[in-house]
Amino acid sequence: MSQVFLILTLLSFSSCIQMSSAASLKTLMARWMMYRDECFRNISREPQMTGLVCNRTFDKYACWPDALPNTTVSVACPWYLPWHKEVRHGFVYLECDADGQYSKQKNASECVSRDPAQINMQHYGRVLSQFRTMYTIGYSLSLGALVLALGILVTFRKLHCMRNNIHMNLFASFILRASSILIKDAMLERPDDFHVGQDITTELEVEWLVKNETAVGCRVAMVMMQYSILANNYWLLVEGIYLHSLLVVTVLTERNYFGIYQCIGWGAPLIFVLPWVIVKYLYENEECWVQNINMEYWWIIRSPILLAVLINFFIFIHIIKILVSKLRAHQMGYSDYKFRLAKSTLTLIPLLGIHSVLFSFVTDESTSHGALSLRLTKLFIDLFFNSFQGLLVAILYCFVNKEVQSEILKKWRRWKLGRDIEEEYRHTYSQSLQMKSGSIMVPPSNLSRLPDIATTTSRLGSPEEKQMLVSNSQNGHRLKY
After folding, report:
1. For residues 67 and 73, is the Cβ–Cβ distance under 8 A?
2. How far is CA 178 from the centre of its chain?
3. Which residue ranges does UniProt annotate as crossing the membrane (predicted)?
4. What is the pTM of this model?
């Protein structure tokens, strides 16, 4: 693996287990640049060797002198490594081939840390990489399904009602969430020519990593991601509030409440995101704002999400009690509009609420020391359900909804009927044109009965022949008109 990239990656991942990676990353990059500058100064000062040699170079990991062909060069482990004290007596080896070119593969086994914490961090980094692949697939599938579902609900005007309007806003919040996360990951993604498996990291790649960590666009993407997550959770809360109002409130003026729902779903997140942005800019203006150095600031975002999840969970418990009491009293039937709506909507709340409540009190602080397996378990469940959540919502609220299916079926039948009518019209119109164009022609079935005027010299004076000509002429006029 690329040595420099591995160091930067591990330091970035270390933030997940509450290490001061922001300061560590800055210190590492400063020491790496000092090592690079020192190497360039030494290269410029030392006299050049004559003949065929492997030229001195800095391969972004270690500084190499001139070397004779068919030799193995050894230099001390770079002193910018965070674990240099542990490997200060080790060496990194590189072969100079017969053509006077340094090999692309180096042996840096003596410069690798043997610290169990570093080994665990490498394992943690590999697991997070697999998690990222998993949630990228989930968000991509959810994004496609949600865009299609939102298009269906917007297109069919007969589906526009309070319930579906809330669903459409929920879909939009899921789309915004998936898009912002994928955009943020894309901005932090390595370039196309960035190969982690290579042993040499180019200077362009290192500079790219540092610049993108501090780019304004990356921070804007982080702000949008935090807002979309908050908006998504609060539109889920709106779904729970609306469902509860259907079951509890007898008279509901839906038009008056929809404006309040929009303020909760789209307006409430701004109340928490704006203070978080100000605090991050003033006190934690580090890198891409991904890391939480002071966890107290992170509660500005975490507390409203936790509040929405808990309220939705209590609503879910209350609705379950209402439905159980109705079932026991035999007052609930599938013909009841509200309870049919509750049945279709209730399937979403356990999926969204319960899995979040299970780990709501498993905080980052409680898993920062020794509870790595619990942290990975919580992280996997959160990432899995959150990434595939939009796909399940699109299926439950749109694709398997009987009302939506009925409208799509009606649209399909009308379209097919229109096509059939158009085809029938084209067929009838073409036949009428053929009949008009062929009106002056004598029907072929009667041609055999007519005498051949070109080959006969006799006059057509027999009564049968005259009657045949008259009848054929009359038939021709009838076909024409």
Report:
1. yes
2. 5
3. 134-154, 259-279, 299-324, 345-363, 383-400
4. 0.68
